[in-house]
Amino acid sequence: MGAQKRLSGQEAVEQFKEVVDHQGLCMMVTRVDEHPSHSRPMSVGQVDDQGNFWMLTLAGTHKMDDIQRDPRCYLYFINPGKQEFLSVMGTVEVLNDQQKKEELWSPFAKAWVPGGVEDPDLRALKVTPVDGYYWDTKAGVLVAGMKIAVAALTGARTSDGGVEGRVKP
User: Per the structure, how many domains does the chain have?
Assistant: First the structure.
């Protein structure tokens, strides 16, 4: 286990931005009190300076039904190449703000929204984090892997040199 570090305020926002910069795809889980909950991959277009996660979606989807029923969600980011992991619990707000949709638009979005940024069903989702947890191996996957291999050969317990902890904006 790595060092424990609690992040808040601007430090938390910077951690969110760093993870999303390296891995913009996440799993968004809705219906958090139901079993099974619903999950789907989402592309995060932006983490703003307040630590909110922004993404695009279409109205009339099951995801939108879930959000109307209960705006709570979880976002899970996994970047094994950089050994970064982040889980965020938050609340979702649905916005029909054309300026924000244009700001978030990318050629990648065209695959899911053939009507483009002017599609009348396009919506912006704002996930405001309430709580979260991160794991980050700053030394990288190669160093962490070597430490684990040495520990396995010698029987000694190892730390991957990483850091983990709670993160709240």
Answer: 1
